[in-house]
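Good morning C.,

I know you're traveling, so I'll keep this short. The sequence:
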Amino acid sequence: MTQSFADRHIGPDGAGFAHILAEIGIASAGDLAAAALPAGILDTYPPAGDADPLAGLPRAASEHEVLAELAALAATNTVATSMIGLGYYDTLTPPVLVRNLLENPAWYTAYTPYQPEISQGRLEALLNFQTMVTDLTGMDVANASMLDEATAAAEAMTLMHRVGRGRGTRLVVDRDLFPQTRTVLTTRAEPLGIEIVEADLAGDGLPDGEFFGVLLQVPGASGRVVNWTDVIVQAHERGALVAAGADLLALTLITPPGEQGADICFGTTQRFGVPMGFGGPHAGYLAVRTAQARQLPGRLVGVSKDADGAPAYRLALQTREQHIRREKATSNICTAQVLLAIVAGMYACYHGADGLRAIARRVHGHAEQLAAALGEALVHDKYFDTVLARVPGHAESVVAKAAARGINLRLVDDDHVAVACDEATTGDHITAVLDAFGVAPGESRGTGIADRTSEFLTHPAFIRYHTETAMLRYLRALSDKDIALDRSMIPLGSCTMKLNATAEMEPITWPGFARLHPYAPAGDVPGLRRVIDDLERWLGEITGYDSVSLQPNAGSQGEYAGLLAIRRYHLDRGDTGRDTCLIPSSAHGTNAASAAMAGLRVEVVKCRANGDVDLDDLRAKIADHADRLACIMITYPSTHGVYEHEIAELCALVHDAGGQVYVDGANLNALVGLARPGRFGGDVSHLNLHKTFCIPHGGGGPGVGPVAVRSHLASYLPGDPLIADSHAVSAANYGSASILPITWAYIRMMGADGLRRATLTAIASANYLARRLGAHFPVLYTGAGGMVAHECILDLREITKRTGVTVDDVAKRLADYGFHAPTMSFPVAGTLMVEPTESEDLTELDEFAEAMIAIRREIDHVAAGKWPVDDNPLRNAPHTAECLVGDWDYPYSREVAVYPRGVAHTRAKVWPAVRRIDGAFGDRNLVCTCPPLDAYSD
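The tokens, ready to paste straight into the viewer:
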């Protein structure tokens, strides 16, 4: 019998699933759904015919059928030569990076490096990225990527506002800023009470009055290159900080903003080998002076040392800080764009400084050819890659003539056309563009912009790997230092590390999806628009909502967009006082951070001892804030891993008080096909396509966080970022559009029955592990009948109190057993949150359970005094191959250290790259770029 895709996606086969159900005392899948979920929210199960709530989804198709369908859709897209610019450029991704990085599951199935000892490869790659950014911008510290350029600009704005406290609420923005960046800035500024003042800073200088910051673009949207040194000096004299959006390729030739005195640089690394992809995903960047390093939002990789004194990398300072500081967090960012940042960093490693300069000179040379031919039509005489031409009354004609030659130019207005050159531009393209303008080639006059004198990318990482052989081996050596899904189950609770099928991944590098500019003419992209339209409809069917926007390019941005919709809904109804957001104490920290960004006041609702929201406290909070209640944010199933049976009553209480219900979709993998938040009380939800719908985590990004709403909120969804005041939350209308085919393929191949099976299997597997491990590590929260949802929390607090063995010890020891650890100390300190997903088969579930049980026996040895509390295999874990060859002074054998289940055990051995890392040392001695060896020695 031929297996369906669902049979290959879902780990346990029929016999395995039956064994799991028997172990948890459930007779059938139907009984499992009835036992786990509240009857009041459960859709008819099993569904019959038209009663199926997912009847609107297409039938399940095979992998080959879906690939053929996507190929046909891609073929309907016109892959024109894009010379539109505005921060998006064609680029030539080195094939060695395509095959061995973008298409390599060792890289794209990894998770955020919260266990740094088994993440040294991607951490080193991110350190390369940070070094590349600081070198090119002339700044001191860069983070490990942002979501895109526009959101990076918004983070720069709020950073300046925090640092410049007391300098007023006005931000001065140069008129030549990218329009999509200006729109996102406006969206972010309004709820925070920030006033944006636009000015022609190059022509008129700084405006009068007080302001906390200035925001510039280098080069500008028009292509103009300006030396901003004088403006920056004047801004500093008036107490303001300056942030510059800077094109990294241009900075190989022109004086970087950091050397001109800027305090912050932001931008995108898209043109460093990352395809345009109709808008994303791309790695934005944010770089600051050392003085602002501890205010820097997002993730930051730093250098430290391990237990043996060897250099080691880990996330520094802000690791998960939005979960800890909640509404006081510097940002709501939870994911970044790690996979794309690594591509950009490796592009720089592969080309090196000389290679990047050569690419930049070729790009600029083509722009010079255009400028020379345009003559008096040229608007600016200083430019890098983009020239602006004045053609009174003929702009549309020029653009049309170029389009007829297969080239898309940018129509600025009736009288102006902009032409952007990039790495893929050829002499033939220049000839075709000149034909469209009706001008002959001219003699280049030169612009004199090549004025950068400082060196960059001098670290060996940017010198050693210029041949394909060297790069191939470097990528392999780094990936060998990591644990990703290609090597092991990753049982991270709240993260849903499930199979990212090859058939889902294959289309993302096809030119028909990858080489589309986000502002290409609508007629060029019918195939991708079909994918987008289908997904919006299918996700609406699955969630029970009426409208969906795919624009948010991370779950945090989906949260933010949903809360903005609620806020604008209340304002339009005249409820200007509704500014309070109720959030249970169990919620994701991003919820509170997002609410604060949306201009809402956070009030925390207590939870009961069993983890459920305390409805008595909710009633009291509603009474206290009745006239001010905007909404409640609730994660369902809860962050504690249970289905709260009073969810319908909770929603009704908030609705009766005039508030809206935001259902955080982070745990939707436990609902798909069984219950729909838009039908059991939710007004708005965001979804994590990088969790439930198979977009891979990529080491910490990309993610996609669509926002879904009921009909009364549909008009408040984010709009086109090229339209001012459209409330856009990212730079591209459809966010990270090039990876949407992954989710499209997943839903298309699974069909309604497959999606439902996946949910039931995830629930069953979580309950199976809870039963197997509960006798060894108490399960903290359970719902009705002792059931958990799709994850369970193992409580180690009493064990730690009695033995001194901590969750960190267990997590690090799991690496010696060949496993990635579950989520540590979230949402409850001193616990481990385990989520097996539906993709792990019974053998892998049992292997993980046996490893955890073996670790419990090791804990018992410590408790019995066989091993000292401060010197045992758990406290000293993980163990490297190198530690075996020196003196061995531990009270246990080398074999126990590295083969805890015996050398004959069949599971492949994973060798951690470093011993336990001293994070505090790294924070005290902050080094966030590729360092010389003596930079992190004692």
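Safe travels,
E.
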